[in-house]
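Dear colleague,

As promised, here are the two records you asked about, laid out in our usual form so they can be pasted straight into your sheet.

NAME FIELD: protein one
SEQUENCE, THEN STRUCTURE:
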Amino acid sequence: MKNLLSITDFSVQEIDQLLSVAQDIIANPEKYNEKCKHKILATLFFEPSTRTRLSFESAMLSLGGSVLGFSDANSSSASKGESVSDTIRVVSCYSDIIAMRHPKEGAPFVASMVSSVPIINAGDGGHNHPTQTLADLLTIKTEKGRLDNLTVGFCGDLKFGRTVHSLIEALARYKGIKVVLISPKELTIPDYVKSDVMDKNNMDYVETTDLEQVMPQLDVLYMTRVQQERFFNEDDYLRLRDSYILTLDKLSNAKPDLSILHPLPRVNEIAVDVDNDSRACYFKQVANGRYMRMALILKLLGIE
C-alpha cells in the first residue's frame, strides 16, 4: 500500500505519470466519471482549510466516489483528547483512502503507521504540502511545456512556507533548474532545505531581498504571503510587507511569458489588477489542484 506523505515518496517517473493522467482527465473528463464508484474518501482536517479540503472533496465526487470527514478538530473526538493514531484506526474502518491536514509536523507519518488504507498528507505544519506541489508542477508543465531548464523565483515567507519547501524538493530532481530566493532576512529559507535538498542536488540558487532586480531573469514567480504573525515588531512587518507586493509596475521588466503562481489564500501580496494580466496563473493553479488530486486518488487506490 502506497501513501503520499512527502513529494519524494514518488519517483520522477511516477510524478510524470500522474501529470499525464491529470492532463487526460482535463481532456476527457467523462471517461473518469465513475472510476471511484462505491469508494469513500475521508477528509480529516485538524487545521482550517478552504481550497485543499474542497479540492479533495470535489476530486472524489468528480470520480463518482463519496466523501466523509470533518473540517475542524473541535468537531471531532480530538477535542476530547483522542490520539491521531486512534482517530486513523477508526476512520480507516469507514473509508478507502484518507486525506489529512494537521498542525503538527510528522502527524501524517504517524497516521500511515497505523492506517489500513492509503494516507495523503494535505499539509503538516510548516513541513510539507505534497498535493499543492503536484498542482504547482501541473501548472508549470502546462504553462511552460516542461519542468526542466527553468529559473524559478520564490518570493515572501520562505522560512515557514511549506508549499515552497515541497516545490523546491520536487524541482531539485529536474535538470537545469535555477532557484532565486527572494525574502526579508527574517524569513529566509531554512538551512535544512539548503543543505538537504539544494546543496545535496547541486541545485543552482541565489538569495536576495530585491524582487525587482531579479524579475527579468524569471520564467516562474511563486509568490507567498509575508505573515504578520511571524514578526516581533510591527514596524519591521509593515516595512517589509510592502516591498513584496506584486504590482503591474513591478512586472514592467518581467518576461512576457512569465508564469505567476501563488498557493493562496492571497491577502495583499499580489495587487488585484495583476489578476487580469495574462501571466497570472494562480486561479488556473486551483483548477489544476483538483485534476492532480483526482489522478492521485486513482493511483493510490490502484485504479487504472
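NAME FIELD: protein two
SEQUENCE, THEN STRUCTURE:
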Amino acid sequence: MSNFDIAYKRTCKFEGGWVNDDADSGEETYKGISRVANPKWAGWSIIDQYKKKSNFPKNLDSDVKLQELVKQCYRNNYWNNVWGDKINHQDVANDLYDTAVNMGVAISIKLVERQFKMKETGKMSKNLLDKLNSVTR
C-alpha cells in the first residue's frame, strides 16, 4: 500500500510558504492552502497571530501545530479522497494525489477515469481502484 508521508513530502517541495498575491485567485495561501478555498481552516488563526510578530512569515515554519494542521489538511482533503492508502503503487498514488492538490479531487479522478475509458464521475470507486491497482510499473 502507498504511504501518505512519501506523497506529502513530494508535493510539499512545490507548494512554497506564505504568499499573498493579488494576481492569484487563491489570494492568501500558505503551503498551497488557499484562504479563499479553505476559509475555515484552523491554521489561519495561527497565521493571523504570527502576522503581528516580527520575522513574519519566516516564523511560520517553526510552529509545530501549524505544520501538523497543514499536513492534516492535505491528508483529509486530498489523500483520503483519492483513497491513497488503498493504492498499491506509490508512484500511482503520488500522481493521483498531486493532481488532486493542484487541480481538485474530482478533476484528478476524472482524468484517470478518462484514461481507463470509464464514465467520468469524479469520485473514487472500487472499480477505479481495481484498475489503478492492476497497473504494472
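A couple of things worth noting about protein two: The mean pLDDT is 94. Strands lie at 18-20, 28-30, 33-34.

Best,
R.
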